[in-house]
Amino acid sequence: MVSQRGRRNGSAVARKLSTPDADNAPTAEMPAVTENGAEEARVRAIPEAAVARLAVYLRVLSAMSEQGATTVASEELATAAGVNSAKLRKDLSYLGSYGTRGVGYEVAVLVAQLERILGLTRQHKVAVVGIGNLGHALANYGGFPGRGFPVEALFDIDPDLIGVPVGGIPVSHLNDIPEVCSERGISIGVIATPPPAAQTVADRLVQGGVQCILNFAPVVLQVPDHVEVRKVDLAVELQILSFHVARRAENVGGNGMVVR
């Protein structure tokens, strides 16, 4: 997934090649949180790579909490999240949370801290634009509301879809995006349209006060600096996986073992 802040955009692969350590590349500044949940006076910049891992930690911890876990060791959490313990501890240090030696982390406290730092203490209303196969699936996905992202508006240009409920929400026309998004307080727009329509959709979302856009269309969007864009290009992700597969194949020795 590629981040595009304002008018800037680029390949995730290119960014990794040009940046010696992706974990040192800061995103927008976020307040660090102490162990009792209070914001510190000073503000730290959390690297984008670390933000992505914090979201993974939250998912893992939420599952542990549902299973009745009250504490978790750093090694256990690191293994469940697919990272090493040192990286986990470094990531959690951005929250000001270091756990207790011999005990680990309190699951409920850490969940609360992560939700706070990720901005999940309030709901973010979502609009999906383009009710094709992908948009239809997103509109019906039941996991969004439970994680604080209720889908509140749907848009398309197909006259056969206008007014038809999808996931319980009637589909509105693309021309109504600014008005509907403003009225319903939409903060996140998801673009699942064909590429030629994506820029027009983005413009209308911005007119409606949308501050964040998740873009599935394989185009670079031009948006104001205050609008955050995340680009999801499945073809690029597959190409990255292909690169790793090819590299592994080149490193396999004659005995079938991978040479590292």
TrEMBL record:
Domain CoA-binding intervals: 119-220
Region (Disordered): 1-38
Keywords of this entry: Cytoplasm, DNA-binding, NAD, Repressor, Transcription, Transcription regulation
Any GO CC annotation of this UniProt entry: cytoplasm
InterPro entries (UniProt xref): CoA-bd, NAD(P)-bd_dom_sf, Rex_actinobacterial-type, Rex_DNA-bd_C_dom, Tscrpt_rep_Rex, WH-like_DNA-bd_sf, WH_DNA-bd_sf
NAD among keywords: yes
Subcellular location: Cytoplasm
Residue spans binding DNA: 56-95
Keyword Transcription appears in the UniProt entry: yes
One Gene Ontology molecular-function label: DNA binding
Taxonomy, superkingdom: Bacteria
Record-linked SUPFAM superfamilies: NAD(P)-binding Rossmann-fold domains, Winged helix' DNA-binding domain
Binding site for NAD(+): G130, I131, G132, N133, L134, G135
GO BP, one annotated term: response to redox state
Function: Modulates transcription in response to changes in cellular NADH/NAD(+) redox state.
Similarity remark: Belongs to the transcriptional regulatory Rex family.
UniProt subunit comment: Homodimer.
Protein name: Redox-sensing transcriptional repressor Rex
Organism this protein belongs to: Amycolatopsis thermoflava
Encoding gene (name): rex
